[in-house]
Amino acid sequence: MVTRRYRTTGGEIDLIALEGEWLVFVEVKTRRDEGAGQPMEAVTLEKQRRLTRTVRAFLKERRLERFRSRFDVVGVTWVPGEKTPRITHAKHAFQPTD
User: Fewest CB atoms within 10 A around its CB: which of 36, 57, 73, 80?
Assistant: First the structure.
């Protein structure tokens, strides 16, 4: 892992990891049950825009623009009656937005 909870005035990135040649920017969404909708649905277009701006700030600040990067989304759903959460991982979940 490179870092977690990277923050700027415009947003936050939950996790930043290095996987081979890729810098992976991960948004983690958690739900207490399935009635609240799927965690992945919470990564709206506006959220994608904020994440994109925050990632650009991170890359510029750390002078890492040369690295390939991608956005992943991890969904965690706690289902009543189950001892462990259901976890989904969407690699390349969305493309950077402007």
Answer: 80
Q: How many CB atoms lie within 10 A of CB 37?
A: 12
Query: Radius of gyration (Cα) for the chain, nearest Å?
Result: 14
30-41 per-position pLDDT tens digit:
888 767 677 888
What global pTM score does this model have?
Answer: 0.88
Query: By C-alpha distance, which of 28, 71, 82 is closest to 49?
Result: 71
CB-CB contact of 54 with 11 (8 Å): yes
Could you give the CA distance from residue 71 to residue 90 in angstroms, rounded to a whole number?
A: 9
71 contact partners, CB below 8 Å, separation of at least 6: 25, 26, 27, 48, 51, 55, 92, 93, 94, 95, 96
- Give the number of residues written for the chain: 98
